[in-house]
Amino acid sequence: xxxxxxxxxxxxxxxxxxxxxxxxxxxxxxxxxxxxxxxxxxxxxxxxxxxxxxxxxxxxxxxxxxxxxxxxxxxxxxxxxxxxxxxxxxxxxxxxxxxxxxxxxxxxxxxxxxxxxxxxxxxxxxxxxxxxxxxxxxxxxxxxxxxxxxxxxxxxxxxxxxxxxxxxxxxxxxxxxxxxxxxxxxxxxxxxxxxxxxxxxxxxxxxxxxxxxxxxxxxxxxxxxxxxxxxxxxxxxxxxxxxxxxxxxxxxxxxxxxxxxxxxxxxxxxxxxxxxxxxxxx
Length: 282
Prior knowledge:
Radius of gyration: 24 Å
Helix content: over 70%
Oligomer: single chain
Strand order of the largest sheet: 1-2
Shape: elongated
């Protein structure tokens, strides 16, 4: 009886506190938001980058590129392919968000019996408590900053890697094994960024997390792992400048590879030969 009197269920909520103590957020919710943003950019860069490579390869094998480059410059053709598929990605992402919102609002109308069975008094109370905690946690997160950085790092991260995928697509033929061998060095920084991001969520101020968020080839993924925390403004600015600069440099180099490779058939170039094309004076 004494044990029952002193026994109590204690719930301890883990929170993230800013240095000045002015703002708190639920640690679990911040972890989920950071991981979701990071893995979305990770998957979208790989999926849409691969689509760029396949589109360029298809145009080359079907001899469409030979006709098109007679009217436009190879650089314009490459950028048109990259920008077009990038806009498709943003459109699909917007459609997913709209559909989730519509389904969530229409679900009680189409299945009221199931919702009533799931929403007993106890279940409703628990659900209301959880939703209240989630709403409170979301209100403390910098949602505007998260949305802006997500769009920025998706766009420039995608453009950076899409130019590399386009360069690989311009030099391969229908042999998929050949394409996989050339794509592997491109995928390694993306995979490395995902690994660092999983660590950065737990330790956002560690040296590895800071390096990963500044290094241009991993910053689109790693920065999303730190986006719910108080990131110094100078780190965001340096990361953005380095990413934009890397995008411009790689686009300029891969355009030279694309111009040479798109009209080359029957030869499997190596990365060394492709670098010679990139730095050759035109």
